[in-house]
Amino acid sequence: TRTAIFISGRGSNMMALVEAAKAPDFPAEFVLVVSNDPNAAGLAWAAAQGIKTFALDHKPFGKDRESHERQIDAALRAEGVEFICLAGYLRVLTHWLVQQWEGRMINIHPALLPDFKGLHTHERALEAGVLEHGATVHWVSSGVDEGEIIAQARVPVLKDDTAEMLATRVLAEEHRLYAEAVRHVLKS
Ligand code: GRF
Q1: 16-26 as b/e, with b when 16 or more CB fall inside 10 Å?
Q2: Are 63 and 91 in contact (CB under 8 A)?
Q3: Which of 36, 108, 168, 173, when mutated, tests ligand 1's pocket best, judged by the most ligand atoms within 8 Å of its CB?
Q4: Cα of 88 from ligand 1 centre, angstroms
Q5: pLDDT tens profile 147-183
Q6: Which helix (H) or strand (E) holds 128?
Q7: Of 33, 41, 118, 161, which alpha carbon lies 20 to 30 A from 8's?
Q8: Is residue 120 among the annotated active site residues?
C-alpha cells in the first residue's frame, strides 16, 4: 500500500515506520513524507533514505488552512498515495482533508485515549497522578484525537518521573506500536 507519513519535527516515529517497512512482508510502502515545516529535522533523514519529501510551510496561508491542505492533497495524489500515517504532525486538519482520506488515515497520540487529548500529555498525566500512561493509534476523524482506537501501548508511571522521563518511556512504545498497528490495519 502506497503510504505517506506526515511529520512536523524530529520524526522518530517516521523513522521507526520506515525501518519496519524494510521487512519483506510489511504491508506499507512509504513513498512520501509530508511536512508543514520545511525545516523539520525528519525531512533530511527521509530524503537520505531515498524517500520523496513534500514540505509546504503553512504560515503564508494564514487562516486559509484548506488551501494549504489542497496543495498537500494534490501532492499525495500525484504520488499515488493510498494511505496516510500522521506521526507528530502538529496541525489540526481541516474537515475537507479528513473527508478526503476518511478510513485511510491514522494517527499516533502520546496518551491512552480518550484520556489526555491534545498537547502536553505527559505533563498532564503526571499532574493527574495516573499510575499508567501510554500511546494510542487511532483512525482520524473530524474531532481531534477522537477517531476509533486501533491499538494502545501502556507504560507504568514511576515515582519521581519527570515529564521527560515519561515521554522517553512512552516514545519507545510508540515506535513498536505504530508499526504493529499499520500491519494490523493494512492486512485486515
Ligand atoms: C510523538 O510523541 C507523537 O505521538 C506525538 O508527537 C511526538 C512526535 O515525535 N504526536 P516524533 O516526531 O515522531 O519523534
Answers
A1: bbbebbeeeeb
A2: no
A3: 108
A4: 4
A5: 999 999 999 999 999 999 999 999 999 999 999 999 9
A6: helix 121-128
A7: 161
A8: no
